[in-house]
Design brief:
It contains 6 helices and 3 strands; from the N terminus they run αααβααββα. By secondary structure, the protein is mainly alpha-helical.
Length: 146
Amino acid sequence: MRITVTVEDPTPEVLERLLAFTSEPGAEVAALPDTRWTPERARAYYLNLPPRAQQILRAVVAGDGWCSADVARGESGRSLRGCTGAFARRIREGALAGRWPASLPVPVETVTTMGAVVRLEMPNHGTEADPLPAFRAALSDLHGEG
């Protein structure tokens, strides 16, 4: 039998009791990195993005986890070079500030063909680790969209 226990932000007392329990004979403990997007994390992340990156993220969420490069460029047709780097930078900055774990995956990635960006998408779409539901909930709370 395998039992999985998840405790988010455990108090020192809970952590102490959990460690005592797992020290029993036959218990094996594996600490897994926290890689789950929650609506709260998604909201904080979104609010810390620059406006252009927010626009791209909204387009990806509205597109059910992806959008074409043309949609992401918008009517201006501006290049996507550099603006997608904000997604990774905000992960690092938020982890340093203690807003989320450093293991949290970047929620938007570029897909290129022959060096050109063709679309932007959320990694792990359709899996248990899919960030889309968390971002839908966050954007719905903020803008009534998602």
